[in-house]
């Protein structure tokens, strides 16, 4: 008991070394959280002002024993978390069936949480060998496509099988995509590296172009940071360290914010990439763009 009490003292003390704090949180996760006061202390360590390692260690300790009430409490405050903590929460809930089911049920009530489950993890859920999980995933992840995006995708679906002109596609890329994406030496690398994508199938690109808010990777979700000196910074979070958060705006400008200076870091629940590209890329032009992107 004395060792566990010491672990709690170290974990919750911002003056102790990060390595000691994270090691203490690992021990706490193994032994469990006995009191409401200590559970509240762990939830407090999820704050954006805490070092990333402490946030992640607290999350793992809260979920280590499969406590569904802890999972619900964590997921309830989803818009307050940065990409690193979001990914850890999702991955930890994947470790136990009851937590996976809790994640899916809460995703059914939250557009932002649902869109934060990226495409690779969606695929894992949809094809899960546990039928109860896969059935719920199909119900939750397949039933919430917004009608306007679903209709646009339906109209553009035939374009994936049409032959396009790569030269014309390059011109479309430079005109409409290069402000955020880089390919063949042209454009800005604000969004995902298109050349490095593992899946470059036309349907994958079409889904990403026309419905960018479906299954957004944490690095490309838009956040709003407010600081203690009244600054507001909007952009995606490109780097998180124990001491700071780095954001990049639509112009490509990078801003490093010390965690101690943050008042809040809140997700908009939306992709950095805008919807509505069908207004500038016609049905006739889409095969050209898809041909170039491949």
Question: What topology does this entry show?
Answer:
Layout: H1 2-11, H2 18-31, H3 36-44, H4 52-63, H5 68-76, H6 83-93, H7 97-107, H8 111-116, H9 119-126, H10 131-142, H11 147-156, H12 166-176, E1 182-183, E2 186-187, H13 202-210, E3 221-227, E4 232-240, E5 244-248, E6 254-258, E7 262-271, H14 286-293
Antiparallel strand pairs: 1-2, 3-4, 3-7, 4-5, 5-6
Which class best fits the helix and strand makeup? alpha+beta
Strand tally: 7
The helix/strand series, from N terminus to C terminus, equals HHHHHHHHHHHHEEHEEEEEH
Largest sheet: 5 strands, antiparallel
Radius of gyration: 21 Å
The proportion of strand residues reads: 5-15%
Low-confidence stretches: none
Mean pLDDT: 87
Helical segment count: 14
Distance between the termini: 60 Å
* Strands in their spatial order, largest beta sheet: 6-5-4-3-7
Helix content: 40-55%
> Any idea what the shape is?
globular
Account of the 3D structure:
About 35% of the residues are buried. The model has no long low-confidence stretch (mean pLDDT about 85). The strands form two sheets. Strands 6-5-4-3-7 form a five-stranded antiparallel β-sheet. Strands 1-2 form a two-stranded antiparallel ribbon. The chain is built from 14 helices and seven strands. With about 290 residues, it is of the alpha+beta class. Helix 12 crosses helix 14. The termini are far apart. Strand 4 and strand 5 (about 245-250) form a beta hairpin.
